[in-house]
């Protein structure tokens, strides 16, 4: 009896818990879109080629690695100049009897034009997942993996701090650099600000009541960041003190990065609500929040007064930033879950859905700009 | 159906587990241990019923084998006589299924809940959110801390110790429950199950999160304790252990009205077999001293019953 129940529980749990492979948000630079795929590769896509429906990869398009695949990819690629920086897991071994391969975190430096490696991948000496996207200042690349922040010289590939910074919990937010300070949130309920030169904390960590997985938004000297306690916080970037008398209470988990426009901060949460608050006072600006029927996990995108949000059920909405009412005639239905952050470039909003395809919508109308492009290695002819 | 399953099993168990984690100083390993023990103990009445059904089945086996030999070719008659035996022993042919049917969803839910609570990736944590109650405490606690002793509870054991413990504890439990039967096919099946299933689960555990391995080990240990309470070491001991007294739960009695027939003129081994559901092998075993069964005098050297050589 024991054995049959044990077997049943393993089988059913196995059916229910399909392994997750990641898949990242997108980055847009120099007219190209870079995205990490659930098949363990990063793709560089030319919007012009995709719009024409040319076979992939066309000139200037590539995918990496060409002959193998990386581990689960969660951290969106970070592009600066002619280099793509990618934090990814890689490992070998494993199998049916040995279980999953043992993965380690690496940083890849790739040529943005060709996808070739600029140098050998730099091991981070940790098997913890790299989830947040890297950031950099002039000389240093900052990468988060597990609880640690690594500072790596862009030219040398060598550590820039005496030791990696260690938080008390995992770091899942993207890293943000502003005015020689590195900002990020951690699942230990804290928001940190580190001196980019030394890795020392600029102020005692700001403590929320729940885990902080959201990416900080820095605007006008204030750090705006949401937490799993359902609050949206405004923190003075220089001192680490709360700016608002009390945090804005939105109800559900805030996970995506907020966006700012004309003195207002917009943030969405897992209750499916989109809130607009005054950046200085934290008071709601809209008569009532916009409510989607499903949770909103991804960061919204702002294009010319249209706030584009996507709920996890694959519905995409275009809202008037001033009133919160829908601008599009109807929401666009992707037909697949959306958890990755939305990225805007010009009038185009790029969305990577759980079907591992890129969907591109016009921000002003919600219409499809080009046919969804599946992220997969082309079959050899 | 899924909603009902989540409402009745997953959500209550998951949120309770998280609250327990808070009460146990944010130690998820201990929370898994305690929660598993509590759930298993809550199911003890059903487990005991299951064990007793198995014992009764073992007691009936000789009778059923006799019938098989006698009426093997006449299926209808065999079926009728078999039902008579069941009735005689007060057994429902589907009786053992009831406890199993009730326990299985609880087991599966507990396994699934631990898997969900471990939430090691953003997708897992997003999924976990759907199952949380609106209690502020649970939202403030997730994600749960994964470290416990040398382990990361969301990853396999790097020392490979837990797979050995999973396989070993499962083997012990299997061994205790196996009733040696005269049927060679049954014996062969028992032997295969005894080694194959623990081996298989040990191998599975190599790739599973160590939190799940802890759940299995604790569950097996509770199962061993429950089994011992009813049957003693059962198939695990070849001879009665010194100083081990009969478990306090009364052994099965023969059906009412048949006691006189059983005790008159039948070999003592058969009587013993009927009481405990365990058939002794033909080779006599010497008593190690002490009372192997309550009410029987300890054997002494030179006792006629113990004949060797």
Largest sheet of chain B: 2 strands, antiparallel
Cα shape of chain B:
elongated
Whole-number mean pLDDT of chain A:
91
Oligomer: heterodimer
User: Termini of chain A, distance in Å?
Assistant: 53 Å
Structure write-up:
The complex is a heterodimer of chains A (381) and B (309). By secondary structure, chain A is mostly beta strands. Chain A has helices at 2-16, 47-52; strands at 26-29, 32-36, 42-45, 62-64, 78-80, 83-92, 102-111, 122-123, 135-136, 140-145, 148-153, 165-166, 176-178, 181-185, 190-195, 206-207, 217-219, 222-226, 231-236, 248-249, 259-261, 264-268, 273-278, 290-291, 301-303, 306-310, 315-320, 332-333, 343-345, 348-352, 357-362, 368-374. In chain A, strand 10 (140-145) and strand 11 form a beta hairpin. Chain A is globular. The N and C termini of chain A lie far apart (53 Å). The relative contact order of chain A is 0.10. The relative contact order of chain B is 0.12. Chain B is mainly α. Chain B has 12 helices and 2 strands, in the order αααααααββααααα. Chain B has helices spanning 2-23, 28-42, 44-71, 75-88, 97-118, 122-129, 136-141, 161-177, 184-207, 210-231, 259-263, 268-276; strands spanning 147-148, 151-152. Chain B starts with a helix and ends in a 33-residue tail after the last helix. In chain B, 62% of the residues lie in helices and 1% in strands. In chain B, a hairpin with a 2-residue loop joins strand 1 (147-148) and strand 2. Chain B is elongated. Classes of the chains: A mainly beta (381), B mainly alpha (309). Chain A binds chain B through residues 1-6, 8-10, 12-13, 16-17, 20, 22, 72, 74, 94, 97-100, 129, 131, 170, 172, 187, 189, 209-211, 213, 228-230, 253, 255, 270, 295, 297, 312, 339, and chain B through 50, 54, 96, 100, 103-104, 107-108, 110-112, 115, 120-126, 129, 136, 139-140, 142-143, 156, 170, 173-174, 177, 193, 197, 201, 203-204, 206-208, 216, 220, 223.
Quick description:
Chain A is mainly beta.
Keywords for this structure?
heterodimer, A: 381 residues, four-stranded antiparallel sheet, 6% helix, B: 309 residues, 12 helices
């Amino acid at each position: 009896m024991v054995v049959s129940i044990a077997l049943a529980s393993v089988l059913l749990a196995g059916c229910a818990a399909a392994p997750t492979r990641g898949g990242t948000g997108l980055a847009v630079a120099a007219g190209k879109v870079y995205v990490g795929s659930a098949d363990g590769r990063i793709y560089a896509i030319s919007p012009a080629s995709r719009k024409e429906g040319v076979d992939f990869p066309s000139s200037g398009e590539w995918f990496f690695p060409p002959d193998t695949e990386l581990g689960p990819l969660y951290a969106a690629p970070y592009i600066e100049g002619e280099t793509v920086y990618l934090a990814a897991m890689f490992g070998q071994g494993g199998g049916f009897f040995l279980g999953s391969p043992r993965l380690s975190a690496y940083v890849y430096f790739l040529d943005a034009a060709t996808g070739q490696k600029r140098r050998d991948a730099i091991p981070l000496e940790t098997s913890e997942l790299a989830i947040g996207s890297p950031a950099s200042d002039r000389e240093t690349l900052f990468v988060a993996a597990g609880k640690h922040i690594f500072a790596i010289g862009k030219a040398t590939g060598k550590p820039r701090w005496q030791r990696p910074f260690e938080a008390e919990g995992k770091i899942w937010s993207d890293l943000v650099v502003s005015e020689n300070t590195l900002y990020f949130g951690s699942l230990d309920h804290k928001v940190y600000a580190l001196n980019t030169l030394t890795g020392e904390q600029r102020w005692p960590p700001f403590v929320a009541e729940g885990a902080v997985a959201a990416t900080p938004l820095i605007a006008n000297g204030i750090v705006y960041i949401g937490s799993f306690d359902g609050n949206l916080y405004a923190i003075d970037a220089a001192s680490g003190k709360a700016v608002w008398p009390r945090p804005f209470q939105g109800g559900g988990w805030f996970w995506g990065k907020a966006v700012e426009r004309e003195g207002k901060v917009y943030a969405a949460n897992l209750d499916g609500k989109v809130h607009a608050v005054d950046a200085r006072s934290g008071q709601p600006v809209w008569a009532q929040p916009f409510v989607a029927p499903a949770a909103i996990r991804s960061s919204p995108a702002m294009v010319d007064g249209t706030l584009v949000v996507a709920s996890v059920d694959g519905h995409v909405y275009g809202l008037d930033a001033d009133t919160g009412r829908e601008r599009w005639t109807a929401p666009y239905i992707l037909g697949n879950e959306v958890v990755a952050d939305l990225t805007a470039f010009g009038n185009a909003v790029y969305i990577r859905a759980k079907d591992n395809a890129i969907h591109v919508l016009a921000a002003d109308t919600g219409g499809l700009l080009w046919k969804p492009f599946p992220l997969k290695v082309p079959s050899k002819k | 159906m899924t909603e009902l399953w989540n409402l009745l099993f997953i959500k209550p168990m998951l949120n309770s587990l998280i609250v327990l984690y808070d009460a146990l100083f944010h130690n998820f390993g201990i929370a898994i241990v305690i929660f598993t023990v509590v759930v298993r103990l809550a199911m003890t009445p059903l487990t005991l019923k299951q064990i007793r059904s198995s014992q009764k089945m073992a007691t009936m086996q000789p009778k059923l084998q006799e019938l098989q030999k006698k009426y093997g070719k006449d299926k209808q008659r065999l079926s009728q006589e078999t039902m008579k035996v069941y009735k005689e022993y007060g057994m429902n042919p589907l009786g053992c299924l009831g406890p199993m049917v009730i326990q299985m969803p609880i087991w599966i839910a507990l396994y699934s809940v631990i898997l969900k609570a471990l939430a090691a990736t953003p997708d897992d944590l997003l999924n976990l959110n759907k199952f949380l109650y609106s209690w502020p405490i649970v939202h403030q606690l997730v994600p749960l801390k994964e470290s416990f002793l040398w382990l990361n509870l969301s990853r396999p054991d790097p020392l490979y110790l837990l797979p050995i413990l999973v396989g070993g504890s499962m083997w012990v439990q299997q061994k205790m429950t196996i009733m040696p039967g005269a049927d060679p096919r049954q014996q062969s099946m028992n032997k295969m199950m005894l080694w194959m299933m623990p081996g298989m689960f040990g191998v599975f555990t190599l790739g599973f999160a160590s939190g799940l391995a802890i759940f299995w080990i604790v569950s097996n240990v509770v199962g061993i304790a429950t089994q011992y309470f009813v049957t003693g070491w059962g198939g695990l001991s070849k001879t009665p252990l010194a100083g081990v007294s009969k478990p306090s739960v009364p052994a099965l009695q023969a059906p009412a009205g048949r006691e006189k027939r059983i005790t008159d003129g039948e070999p003592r081994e058969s009587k013993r077999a009927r009481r405990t559901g365990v058939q002794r092998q033909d080779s006599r075993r010497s008593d190690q001293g002490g009372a192997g069964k309550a009410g029987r005098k300890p054997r002494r050297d030179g006792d006629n019953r113990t004949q060797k050589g």
